[in-house]
Specification:
Shape: globular
CATH superfamily of the largest domain: Ribonuclease Inhibitor
Number of strands: 28
CATH topology of the largest domain: Leucine-rich repeat, LRR (right-handed beta-alpha superhelix)
Strand content: 15-25%
Distance between the termini: 105 Å
CATH class of the largest domain: Alpha Beta
Number of domains: 3
CATH architecture of the largest domain: Alpha-Beta Horseshoe
Length: 449
């Protein structure tokens, strides 16, 4: 009994002593590193400060500060916000981003649904805040939003990042401006809007002019996307079980994974389609043919990868970009004709052993030649080349002026085309005066010849 009393007395004494000590001695602030030259410190109230110079590390789940941050200040000198940095920081109410940040990693703000304030330093060239939204300035990509945000309708936002508003249960009535051309996967997942059964129509969730999600178990086997729809959000119809789908006139944007793994036995794309993003139809391996209208500008990487039933591909003039592995399948689709308008074709865009039909003077001809791809050559008029563009690369540079000067100095024998392009004053020959005029354009001292 005496030993017990002694222990109790000692415990009481320790507690009284602790009460007299400064709070910081009892529970010190957390701190550590979060990049090669970055440190972080967080006090007992959840005020996190990140300082230093350089990049923040990427994280597997979240930063070393865990779930606890409530207010976050990233100081000038920090150049990036790492992948998953504030993943599920559900208590975070404010964040301040410096002008020195040039990149924000994937899912950096995933499930940060308590944010009330986003502040971006006024000198930032890379990010800005408007109407409660964090926006990547150059690309127009919206990364996340604070409570009560409104997506600006001034054209500054063109896309919404993956998981941008996931788990924002307070988000019950969002709206999309007409400037939106891409919606990332799960951007509105588990929001109040998505969880409201009244917003679903026969297994489909629409938001304005966009189809953003579906429950394939409720969709008909010949589903008709609602007229007036301009875009299919990422994964909107992924693994669709039906064999037919009707895409409406006016549809412009088919986002990543929109119909990946679908069991379509036929595919008819509306003439209005402009962009088909990565993996949009990947492994949808039952339809035998696909035709692209003249409005299609981009067919992104892996867009039709693994569509092994394809036996016919028809492109139209106007197409600019064909991404890596876009049409790589185990099948055989004849000899697709690549439009003269195409400006880029990615690695392994077509099956090995394919024969492409390409036009004279085209990028596709150069691509086929450089990559040792079989081709059949089709006739085409030479492209119009601007006066002064001696190498025909589409811009006037110092190299063009030097070529003209070499011709003027009789070091190079000009071709008829050289004279047509380099004779800026119309006297029938290329002189030093012509070379100087081309140089003035290259130096931006004058606008054009």
């Amino acid at each position: 009994m005496r030993k017990l009393r002694t222990r109790i007395a000692l415990l009481i004494s320790l507690l009284m002593l602790a009460a007299l000590l400064p709070t910081g001695i009892v529970a010190s602030a957390e701190e550590g590193t979060c990049g090669e030259n970055l440190t972080w410190a967080m006090d007992d109230d959840g005020a996190l400060i990140i300082s230093g110079a350089g990049e923040m590390s990427d994280f597997m789940f979240r930063g070393p500060w865990g779930y606890a941050p409530k207010t976050v200040v990233i100081e000038e000198g920090v150049t990036s916000i790492g992948k998953n940095a504030f993943d599920t920081s559900w208590a975070m109410t404010s964040i301040s981003i410096p002008s020195t940040v040039t990149s924000v990693g994937e899912n950096a703000f995933y499930k940060c649904y308590s944010l009330e304030t986003i502040t971006v330093a006024s000198g930032s060239k890379y990010y800005h805040e408007k109407d409660g939204c964090l926006i990547e300035t150059k690309t127009g990509r919206l990364l996340t939003g604070a409570q009560g945000f409104k997506i600006p309708d001034d054209g500054s936002v063109t896309s919404i990042a993956n998981d941008a508003f996931a788990y924002f249960e307070w988000l019950t009535d969002p709206s999309l401006p007409d400037s939106i051309t891409s919606i990332g996967e799960d951007a509105f997942d588990r929001t109040g809007y998505a969880k409201n059964d009244d917003n679903w129509e026969d297994g489909a969730l629409y938001l304005g002019k966009w189809l953003i999600d579906t429950d394939s178990s409720y969709l008909s086997k010949q589903y008709e996307v609602k007229p007036g729809t301009v875009g299919l959000a990422s994964k909107a119809l992924i693994y669709y079980r039906g064999t037919q789908i009707v895409l409406p006139a006016g549809l412009k944007y088919i986002c990543a994974y929109a119909l990946e793994g679908a069991k379509l036995t036929s595919l008819e794309l509306p003439e209005s389609v402009e962009v088909i993003e990565m993996w949009a139809f990947g492994y949808s391996n039952q339809f035998p043919s696909v035709s692209f209208g003249s409005n299609v500008k981009i067919i992104d990487e892996y867009a039709f990868y693994g569509c092994n039933a394809l036996s016919s591909i028809t492109f139209s003039e106007g197409l600019k970009f064909i991404g890596q592995d876009a049409f790589y399948t185990s099948g055989s689709y004849g000899k697709p004709t690549i439009p003269f308008s195409v400006e880029f074709i990615g690695k392994n865009a077509f099956n090995s052993g394919v024969t492409l039909r390409v036009y004279e003077y085209s990028y596709a001809l150069r691509y086929a030649t450089e990559n040792e791809i079989n081709y059949e050559l089709l006739p085409h008029d030479p492209p119009a080349i601007a006066k002064g563009d001696m190498d025909g690369d589409g811009e006037i540079t110092v190299a063009d002026a030097l070529k003209a000067l070499r011709i003027a100095a009789k070091l190079v024998e000009p071709t008829e085309q050289d004279i047509a392009i380099g004779d800026t004053d119309g006297d029938g020959e290329i002189t030093v005066a012509d070379a100087l005029k081309i140089l003035r354009v290259a130096a931006k001292l004058i606008d054009k010849i």
